[in-house]
Design brief:
With 452 residues, the chain is of the alpha+beta class. It is 28% helix and 25% strand. Strands 11-12-8-7-1-2-3-6-4-19 form a ten-stranded mixed sheet, with helices on both faces. Strands 5, 14, 15, 16, 17 and 18 form a six-stranded antiparallel sheet that branches. The protein has a three-stranded antiparallel sheet with strand order 9-10-13, covered by helices on one side. The model has no long low-confidence stretch (mean pLDDT 97).
């Protein structure tokens, strides 16, 4: 058993800083590089891509990144774990294998985790009595079955562990939990049992810190953000993990940003509900048990974490088509920029009503005045205000007609309008999120490992 391992965060979402993975594998020692690409809406986007082209459906940035980092992974023995396989992890595997061959790299084993995508099984599962009720509304998934765009279960860390045990140097998954990408190498290297709830919870907390990339090392920091050094070259976090479940959050020396008790604390609070019950497929972590110790020099020790047994369910992340939406904006200059923008909004809404257009939702925000803080925004006298308006309806033609009413405001509304560019806004499809639960007993995972 190793006495410690270093797990580097390389991506926090699909579209994150492209230079981060290369920095993580070249600026200092690491044993693993994890790259998180997936969010709820990401799966539906990838499914649409796969429907158009069966060879797509994964994070294409992943392949470009592998062009840069594969030689370093091979030379230094760094293992890569990523959920960038999206809805087509086998295609991602093939694409990365092609990159390795072009680079003249051989002897790499790529593991692929399958089984999370249940879109094709929805009919069978519902007929077998698995209602998969919406976790908030209670609506069964059958009500939106014909409009589904994607349906994936959140798998945990253990299929990745199996791939590592079978010698994989690279592990590509579909919808695996963000936390599982960091937890898996800790289980593998330290031999943690599947019911060691405290250690699994500790690894889950480590994964939660790692999952959003530089948000744990100074990015998006609400504290004294002006004091953070060299943000143009921000270092992404690294988890230095130990067999007892304790770990240190750090980053490479010479990189920008900062790892402090405050930056780590902010990330710990990100996207959690009940802090005493952070539920994952692997365990239930108790965030109220977390102890933080700032060691200085960009090192924060995390320890004392406890957990509870895992639930018998997987979470289903499904999405479905739910009408159309369009957005547009006009900017109005001073004097009385806010008054002009408000008047334009009133005029536009009256015209839409005169046309008999009916929307499920219509919203306006005044950027520069109160778009972020709404009614609690402090009164100011702005130099310019952007009126940004959006509409949503199930009728495509209604949304399309809205788009023809923006440009006329320039010459038929209040003075000082500018900023209209790019032509009339076009309707785009609304993707609605459908979270549900399903018994783990009906989900079968498969791990494939191939050598290049």
């Amino acid at each position: 058993m190793k006495q410690s391992i270093r797990i580097a965060s390389g991506q926090g979402f699909w579209g994150d800083l492209l230079t981060a993975p290369l920095m993580q594998v070249t600026k200092g020692p690491v044993d693993y590089l994890m790259m998180d690409y997936l969010a709820e809406v990401t799966m539906s986007i990838m499914q649409k891509q796969k429907n158009k082209n069966p060879a797509l459906g994964y994070a294409k940035d992943l392949v470009e990144t592998c062009e840069m980092i594969l030689p370093h992974l091979k030379e230094k023995g760094i293992k890569l774990i990523t959920n960038g396989g999206g809805v087509n992890p086998m295609a991602a595997c093939d694409a990365i294998a092609d990159v390795a061959r072009r680079l003249g790299i051989s002897g790499l084993k790529i593991g692929v985790v399958l089984g999370d995508n249940i879109l094709a099984r929805i009919d069978d599962l519902t007929e077998e009595g698995h209602e998969m009720k919406h976790m908030e509304s209670g609506e069964p998934i059958v009500e939106v079955k014909d409009k589904l765009l994607s349906a994936n279960v959140y798998l945990g860390a253990f299929p990745i562990v199996e791939a590592l045990r079978r010698g994989a140097d690279i592990v590509i998954t579909g919808r695996t939990t963000d936390t599982g990408l960091t937890l898996a190498p800790m289980i593998y290297e330290f031999g943690w049992a599947e019911d060691d709830w405290d250690r699994l919870s500790a690894g889950t907390v480590a994964g939660h810190i790692n999952e959003c990339g530089a948000q744990a090392s100074g990015g998006n920091f609400l504290g004294d953000w002006r004091s953070l050094p060299d943000m143009a070259n921000i270092g992404f976090p690294i988890i230095e993990a130990f067999p007892d479940g304790s770990f240190v959050v750090t980053k490479h020396e010479g990189t920008g940003g900062a790892v402090t008790r405050e930056t780590v604390s902010e990330q710990l609070l990100y996207e959690i509900g009940d802090p005493s019950e952070y539920i994952t497929p692997d365990c239930i972590a108790d965030f109220t048990s977390i102890q933080l110790e700032d060691l200085g020099a960009n090192r924060v020790r995390v320890h004392g974490i406890t957990g509870k047994p895992a639930t018998p369910f997987y979470k289903v992340s499904a999405s479905y088509a739910d009408g159309y939406v369009a957005f547009s904006s006009l900017t109005f200059s001073a004097p009385d920029a806010y008054g002009r923008a408000q008047a334009a909004d009133n005029i536009l809404r009256q015209r839409l009503e005169n046309l008999g257009l009916r929307f499920d939702e219509i919203r306006t925000e005044f950027v520069g005045m109160n778009a972020c803080h709404g009614p609690i925004a402090q009164p100011i006298v702005p130099n310019e205000v952007m009126m940004r308006i959006g509409v949503r309806a199930h009728d495509y033609k209604v949304v399309e007609r809205f788009g023809k009413e923006i440009a006329p405001l320039i010459l038929t509304g209040p003075p000082g309008a500018t900023g209209f560019a790019g032509g009339r806004p076009k309707p785009s499809e609304v993707v609605a999120y459908f979270p549900a639960l399903i018994s783990k007993e009906v989900i079968t995972t498969e791990v494939r490992v191939q050598e290049i």
